[in-house]
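Support reply, case 0932

Customer input (verbatim):
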Amino acid sequence: MNAQLASTAKAMVAGDKGLLAMDESHPTCGKRFAKLGISQTVEMRQAYREMIVTTPGLGECISGAILFDETIRQQTQDGRPFIAVLKAAGIIPGIKVDAGAKELAGHPGEKITEGLDGLRERLAEYVQLGARFAKWRGVITIGDGLPSRGCLQGNAHALARYAALCQEAGLVPIVEPEVLMDGAHTMEQCRAVTEKTLRTVFDQLAAQRVLLEGMILKPNMVLAGLACPEQESVDEVAAATVATLMRTVPAAVPGVAFLSGGQSSELASARLSAMNAHFKQRVPWALAFSFARAIQQPALEIWRGDAANVPAAQQALLHRAQCNRAARRGEYSDEMEEETNR
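Our regenerated output:
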């Protein structure tokens, strides 16, 4: 079992590929559809996700796809299960298993992720459906006196419990402690909170006997808040992020697959590329991506629920995946964007 977990985890961050997160909950997906005037129905969600999984050439850039409970059970219009389509493209199927972040009792302004009840049984079903890895997200807010010790410890404990249950079931856990970009905090504040968060998470992972070789870390990049007037350069973000990870992430972890977390598609690619260009040879883990909006958004804006737009939307999706593949090699450049805009 341990060898299989380690092998899958390595495959998820192998070469110059990364992960595509397409695991939006119904409310999140609904909000993104509503902004573009797309009807919020199960049929439209199916059509959108079919467009994604059938994108020609996607497997050349994407090693794994994170699905939602609805999506892992869906089929294409011609009757092929999405799981089978992904596998045929060489993409490892995964599944989001948390039940979302809810208000943390006694901690105003902070959240705790729920979903541990019945998780062992749900994981067994997902294995039967063909999943080989899972994802759980904890959210940490920076604010006045935040995050609290209770919030950090509660979310870290839940992540570790989830990860142990995944490995028991034969699934590689993606451990996602996200320090949110919302707010006016500085990059230095984000660095301090991210460091404290990761130390707490790995302490809990050790307590729950999670096999580090059989997991993937999905952290935020170290960034100033979206409302902060001072925004550091791409190279400064890359350096701060890698320095923070070097202090906190054990070498046994095979890969760090960053979330995009509200960054623009171009900035997410540029920052990841800078990390690989400057630090790839100095770090013990792969520096990969696990992006959702930063890959999907341009395609969603082109598609807008119209079947006639599918080819153009798929081309936009593939372009973003190719940009992030280049970023894994440290070779992404602005010219890659200019070529598609001509």
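We compared this against your earlier run and they match. Two observations from our side: Residues 99 and 115 are 5 Å apart (CA to CA). The mean pLDDT is 97. Please reopen the case if you see a mismatch on your end.
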